[in-house]
Design goal:
single chain; Alkaline Phosphatase, subunit A; two-stranded antiparallel sheet; alpha/beta; eight-stranded mixed beta sheet; 466 residues; 14% strand; disordered N terminus
Amino acid sequence: MPTARPSVHTGLCRRRALHLGSLALFGGMSLNRLIAAETRSASPPGKAKSVILVNLFGGPPHIDMFDMKPEAPENVRGEFRPIETTVPGTRICELLPLTAMLMDRATLIRSYSHKYNSHNPYNVMTGFDLGVDSENYYAKRTDHPSIGSVCQWLDPGPPDVPRHAVLPAFPGYTQALRRAGPYGGYLGTAYDPLFSSCSPSYARESSGDYDPVFASGVPVLPALDELADMTGNRFHLRSSLLTKLDRQLEDFERTGALAKFDESSRRAFSLLTSGRTRNAFDLTAESEETRRLYGDGLWTSSALVARRLIEAGSKFVTINWEAKNGNHWDLHGNNFGMLRAHLPVLDRMLSALISDLEERGLLEETLVVVMGEMGRSPKINAAAGRDHWPQCGFSLLFGGGVHRGVVVGRSDNQGAWPEDRPVSAGDMVATIYHLLGVDTTLTVPDLSGRPVHICHGGQPVYEAIA
């Protein structure tokens, strides 16, 4: 996690001084107050160096995947049977046989519960679950920052590797809108992630939202002209920052520690032109055996790129499972037909990613989180689907300092409500921060300079932490 923080008495490096100054401009706080806050904050040791978040957009049905209720009434229990896993007494869906063999490496949370009933990853990526669709559906400047954005705010990292990336595209219905969640929010667009883009191929056109068609393809870096507006805004912002910070940092100029004056202003451009970033997206560099392990699906290929980005030095990589032709988890109709298509792909993705990380010695320092923004309703509806249900869902965690072979929380006999150890969105985010070594009591300034808790009152789920 973040490197040791510099003392005011020993001087700040230029990058850190620019970073603090940018916060003063974003949040209305003085540079002196921010430097003082730096000296007071202390981060716990973290076992995870990086995170791969697999966001199953739409709300995966916990009751058909990781919290099955075979004794429930027929209109609740569904069509699939549970199978044994490598953790005695813990059973999951029969369509996840490879994942069942990995459960002794995982912590399974069966009591993820919150209040935010909306189709975006806002609660997953920020920990804030008090939003409403009318205010929080689309990304806006006043949003809370994502975990990846906060990590970049704390530690900008090398200029030629994205600190925070989202694959294979930004959350937005077939790349047509900007859903809230992954952005820098009130920290500023300088802390937005790098978004790849994709143009998947399909064997046929779907007949509707609940007719899944396998998506082939890979995430790719966007062309520079595709980022013209965003990049232009960032360069304008950073140019203005440099001008204003020159005045604020005059006292530091004499130290000689501010040599790399232009590094921050070139960051966005350098990410798209750097060899390290381009190489991370070049899957031809992988062995044939590894490429066969992952396969040519859009989601499994995204997992392979995520692993390559982590190896290159990225801190937080999200795979957002959302594309046209039924590639989503909002299963209001044809729930079981959709899952028959999706679950084998998810099973292959997790098996390939976890085994690959493990073989490379990266699993213990890479936290892999699999979840969605909500669960699904216990009762099957008239369209053979399940509806929105933020009251209960799941989160599956591997590597990065998590307890192995542990189940946290318990839902009632129909999977409707947590009976034991409810875990909020803030708790989940606090757990991720803790594993990364980020102080979970940290606050960041909003647009008015008001300090906002990065975990929104959440506390780490210590039962999940080794």
